[in-house]
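P.,

For your records, the input lines for the assembly:
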Amino acid sequence: MIDLSLLDKQFFQLALVAALLVGLCAPAVGTFIVQRKLALLGAGIGHVALTGVALGFLTGTAPVLTAVAVAVAGAVAIEVVRARGRTSGDVALALLFYGGIAGGVMLMGIAPGGSNAKLNSYLFGAIASVTTEDIWVIGGLAVLVLGVVAVFGRELFVLCQDEEIAKASGLPVRFLSMLIAVTAALTVVIAMRVVGLLLVSALMVIPVATSQQLTRGFRTTMLLAMLFGTVAAVGGLLASTASTRVPPGAAIVLLALAGFVLSLGVGRFIRRGRYQESNVSEAGKMRVEEVT
Amino acid sequence: MSEIAFAMTGGRVTLDGRPVLAGVDLTVREGEVVAVMGTNGSGKSTLVRALLGLRPLSGGSTLLYGVPPARFRHWWRIGYVPQRLAIGGGVPATVREVVASGRVARRRRLSRFRPEDREAVTRALAAVGLSDRAGDSAQALSGGQQQRVLIARALAGEPDTYVMDEPTAGVDAETQRLLADTLAGLVAAGKTIVLVAHELGPLEPLITRGVVVREGRIVHDGPPPQPEGECARPGHEHVHPHAEATAGPLLGWQGER
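Structure tokens returned:
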């Protein structure tokens, strides 16, 4: 069963804080990314970030910091390719992703102290090994990410809705596109320790997909997705205390997916209710018109 | 002394090596109501987008209130109505959220939504008859209603000049009449309107100038072309917006029955 005695342990408290921050940040950025049809952007940046992690091991710097640098560079590169809009764009992206993974594995192999166990902990997450230093970096990035959403949210909404309208409203389209790509990169690094680079974009996409089954507005979709993300991250972490054989990253993502499946059913039920409601009000209006 | 809203000289646009606009000269003064007409693929939609700088010119130049689009700063003066509501990745947005985003060019980055913003949005929703749908998902509405949402979005920004890309295409008769009423109000307020249309329908009496585009060139510029063919037959009745305005459901209420 879930072992609550761990709550007293420092490593578990750090893990909880990390899960909470990821659960809040990833879906907030994810809402814009999903609307922009860039759902796989997070996955791509995650692949690239692996090279950054390995670079950290190779040079003896904190892997989180080198991951930030390389992930941001990768996000900028992806955005440049996207903005060009060439037909070969997706091939260019694929090359970047494979390069990121291969580069990461290679650098990790030749780095002193690099091992398959370390590689795995970044690919699939190792939330229990989060250090106080990690939390400071993750916390700082989380403030940055949520700050961007709060300050630029209105403009990003217009951009993600319709880029031509954004241009015709005088918004700095190129800057905002870059901003969302870089914010996604920062989110990837926040989530890297919790669910791992290969599952990073799950927390950016699944809570949003779940939420949009149930909502009618953009803001409510985002807030509900942040709630779902937090519940999945904290819930998955708690579930993993049941046995040392349960990997927390996978538990978090599977929990989020279970929530999505549940929302499909609930969403259909809600929409049917709304449909009948709007039919009734339409019919009511017709009757009023007949009388007048 | 009327200002010049748009001035294009020798405008050329090339898409994938194919010339779409082949040297267009077009000047629109403030207060004009211009219909850009032409068949599908004539370049009429590209023309209005090029006027706004949304399509880069491969030759010639265009000015927005005397300034090239890249250096133009007063975007709140422009209200652009695209052809259709973009669905994107499927994240829902309420009608009110979409309409409120029309205020974005008028607001500073960190400012709160002011009472005047809220009032402009409420007025815009009322103008297109969607006040009771404000909380609904815009994507769940019918095509005609989505068109109204986009028009309300532009209205909410309270611009001087409206650029509308086929506002009447694929829209039911009721929405066409409502659009004509709304435009009549804008024309009365002295706004500039450039709209792309396949046929004018109930908008016809509002148009002061017709520009016909064919194969990327302007082949007619002057009074709106008279309807031909089916529409010109005797007995074909155009529905005029003002006739509609006095025959609404409020007729009995006003005691004029």
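Two observations worth noting. The longest strand of chain B covers residues 4-15. Residues 121 and 164 of chain B are 19 Å apart (CA to CA).

Regards
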